[in-house]
Amino acid sequence: MNIVILRQRSLSSPGSDQSNNSRAMPWVELPQRTFRRWLLTWQIKLIRLTNEGHLRAITSSTVLRSKCRIWRVLCSALTVFAVACAPDASDRAASDTTTQPQQSSTTIEVPTTSTSAPSTIPVTSIAPTTSEQPTTTVETTTTTIATATTLPVPTIGITRYGIPVRISEPTEEGWEVFDPCGDLKTISKIFPIRETQVVLDPGHGGKDPGALGPTGLKESELNLKVAVAAAQLLQEQGFPTLLTRTGDYYIELDERIALGDAANATALVSIHHNAPIAAKSNTPGTEVFAQTGDTESARLAGLLHKEVFEVLNNVDGIQWTSRWDAGALRVVNSEGGDAYSLVRKPETTNALLEVAYLASPSEGTFMAKDGYVQLVAPSIAAAIKTFLTTDQSGTPLLERARIHNPSGGRRTCPDVDLE
After folding, report:
1. Which residue has the higher pLDDT, 60 or 377?
2. 162 and 223 share a domain?
3. pTM of the model
């Protein structure tokens, strides 16, 4: 049986069809054409299959197989039709691009917050190298641990009034000390002195003025000025120095000696200016007395004589006075012992210096001038420094000792206010 397939014409006019085709969307027109092409092809195949089925012997099995084939072909055709009619994704995207207006793109910057978990790994920041390098200040904390140290009781000290004294022992009220007369006194406060290398003893003082110069200058006053100036020079050079007397007050000879020994010094020098008037001389009559039997005392006396004599001998216009045996020597009494207790009794290496004759009119006038102390004090300090730091001897000690028997006896000692 022949099957005639009639094509359905469009009811619209050719003009309208052309206008519709021109307005049809590309993605709609293409599937329709494809569908019509596939539909025509499968119609032809169905006709052929149908004709072949009528030529064969009609059996129950043949009919079933033919029907199955027909249904398979129809299902395949429907599948192809569905796929062909479905718009392609790329075509749809293209149509969306052509039909929809272009929208302006707006970029919104969202701040990013970086949250980092705490880490035990240290982070090292490397800064760019510049010409100026950062300075790192490291503060070092120094911890001072105070240790309880028991210091021995000092042997000497200075009172509130500046009086050097020997210390006996501390008490509940303060300190028990020996005053310049050698008597025990109790004071509330003291400044201990624990290191002394040199002791300078300004001779006389207080009620004992010593020699008197033509201008009224007292020996005790001049001795103190020279001793203070020499002590300052020694201190500046690093030699701790103690004065046995710091003012115009009287101090017993035995207390001077005890104070010098209590200081445990290396050298003790007692400073004096001489009297009475001796014979005229072209050279100064400087004398220094050494302790008998002590070679170090003789060396100290020789250095003092050398330095002081040379300084004074360079001064012009002075009528000097001197004894024939002036120099570095020993002065002994009739029994052969040292005549002066300040030389005989100290355990410390010592020497007694008589700079020149204050009682001499020419020398006494010169000593009253301001420049005298600045001239003599450095020579004394230089001699002591040489003694402490070298083995030099200075002026040789005279072999023959001078004989002298001074008058003795205990003197009345006035009290001195310590504080």
Report:
1. 377
2. no
3. 0.66
